[in-house]
Amino acid sequence: MVENNRVTKIAIVGATGTVGSFIVAELLKRGQHTVTALTRASSPCAPPSGVQIATVDYAKPETLVAALRGQDVLIITMSVRAPKETQLQLVDAAAAAGVPFVLPNHWCPDVADTQFGEDILLGPTELEARTRIEELGVSAWVGMVTSFWYEYSLGFGPTRYGLDWKERSFTFFDEGETQINTITWPQSGRAVASLLSLPLEPETEGGPSLSGYKNKFVYVSSFCVDQKAMFESVLRVSGTSRSDWTIKHEETTQRYADAKKRLFAGDRAAFSTVLYGRVFFQDGVGNYEARRGLDNDVLGLPKEDIDEFTKIAIERAEAGIGHDIMSFMPPMMASALRADEELLYRIRAFLYDLRNMAHDRASERRIHSTKDELYLGAPYFTPAEVAHIKTAIVNQAYRPGCDQLPTVVEFVRLCLAGFFNTHKSSGYVQPYDLAPIYERAFGISVYELQDAQFLFRLRRQGLRRTQYYLRQQ
Q1: CATH number for the domain including 260?
Q2: Of 177, 356, 421, 471, whose CB count within 10 A is highest?
Q3: In degrees rounded to 5, what are phi and psi of residue 140?
Q4: Cα–Cα distance measured from residue 35 to residue 29, given in angstroms and rounded to the nearest whole number
Q5: For each of the chain's 473 residues, which pLDDT tens digit applies?
């Protein structure tokens, strides 16, 4: 409900998540808003004191609408490993409930530059959400351009900002002199709380207002720095000198191109290099302060001490604290693996062998030659294919109410945990016990394993690659 020309009722998805927790803390600190966390009944995480809870079921859209009715703003913060449809469900529910403002799941660099957004692979998903909001015509979106989180990016490996703390090495991209904007988690929280504390309509001629940001981006930042400045901060905080460090250099455009090639070949670990590598191009796209200007002053955001947050980054690096960059990556669904006909054949062969090894010597031999505990490896798959398969996202939750869809490996382990709970006496899983689990994960039916053409090739060629595939490699 709008009171005194201010929005007061804020709903948030992801209240206990990384950036969500900082947003909630700042909103509560100001005491001007009623904050409601949308959460599933199965969620193990409890929001902080002072936050109201609305339990929702994404399988029942009416629960989302009911939770959002009467809210002024919906903030969406969640892993992009959540199904893409989840954000669109929330957008639809916000429109049905008449929510005036939506802050989409947009906590990244300047994807208003559509080519850049496509280059880092995040842009199309964000554009789809914004377009949906505009087409529904009820809510307005406000996009938060924050760039990368400084504490995380500096402290979690050389593929981000170049620091490898444990190896005492620093990799400069080109000469390390490309300036980019970057933000801290607390500044992200302050930016959102300040934005939502603005008057709905200007109170003075030309004054700031929340309505002034309808269907627009908000550009905020903590620091505009190059890698050399980051490294100097590391030296100050750590009390080390340059001679204590190994300095490396990588050419940025080649680094990005190589990583993109690896990524599309199935090495999903290359995503962080694609994401960060593109921001350090010398076209200035990472320095949106120079291209767009900042809203820091309008929002009253404070200046910050970079050394304070470098210290936090180093502490995180020493403790090994971080989360997998895959959580930022648009998910590759397990069903999409079917697009590669050769890989699909080998997945089918793998499933056939799991089911038939008890009475098929060739199947038994192939299964027993694998070294991986879940049998995902040679002779069925190359290392790149294994990485591709293990990190693919299963198209169904292990059980209703899961907050995000699992990877293939997570899905298998969850199913095995359930298997052991119902087979306590055996304590051992046979390969054929895995067959129905993998079939669910890949969305492959038993009937596909009985296809005459497939069986003819398997019995005649086994796992030999086709000549077409070998030529492609």
Answers
A1: 3.40.50.720
A2: 356
A3: -110, 145
A4: 11
A5: 567 899 999 999 999 888 999 999 999 999 999 999 999 887 767 788 899 999 999 889 999 999 999 999 999 998 756 667 789 999 999 999 999 999 999 898 999 998 998 888 888 888 989 999 999 999 999 999 999 999 999 998 888 999 999 999 999 999 999 999 999 999 999 999 999 999 999 999 989 999 999 999 999 999 999 999 999 999 999 999 999 999 999 999 999 999 988 887 667 778 889 999 999 999 999 999 999 999 999 999 999 999 999 999 999 888 776 554 444 445 556 766 776 788 899 999 999 999 999 999 999 999 999 988 889 888 998 876 777 788 777 865 444 444 456 778 888 888 887 654 554 444 456 788 899 999 988 889 899 999 999 999 999 999 886 543 333 44
Range of the structural domain that residue 191 is part of: 2-328
pTM for this model (two decimals): 0.71
Tell whether 301 and 385 lie within a shared domain. Answer: no
Please say whether the beta carbons of 169 and 248 come within 8 A: yes
Phi, psi torsion values for 170, nearest 5 degrees:
-140, 125
Which residues pair with residue 182 across a beta bridge? 148, 223
β-pair partners for 11? 36, 74
- What is the DSSP pairing of strand 2-3 with strand 6-7? antiparallel
Give the Cα separation of 147 and 133 in Å (integer). Answer: 23
Q: How many domains does the chain have?
A: 2
Is the Cα torsion angle 70, 75, 78, 82 positive or negative in sign?
positive
Residues 193 and 173 occupy one common structural domain: yes
Q: At which of 328, 345, 377 does a domain end?
A: 328
Residues 89 and 110 in one domain: yes
Query: Are 373 and 323 members of one domain?
Result: no
Element (H, E) at 37: strand 34-40
Other Cβ atoms within 10 Å of 244 Cβ, number: 10
Whether residue 178 is found in the same domain as residue 58: yes
How far apart, in whole angstroms, are the C-alpha atoms of residue 30 and residue 36? 15
Which residues make Cβ contacts (< 8 Å) with residue 36, sequence separation at least 6?
9, 10, 11, 12, 51, 52, 53, 54, 67, 71
Asked whether residue 266 falls in the same domain as residue 399, the answer is: no
Both 223 and 367 in one domain: the answer is no
Do 237 and 347 fall within a single domain?
no
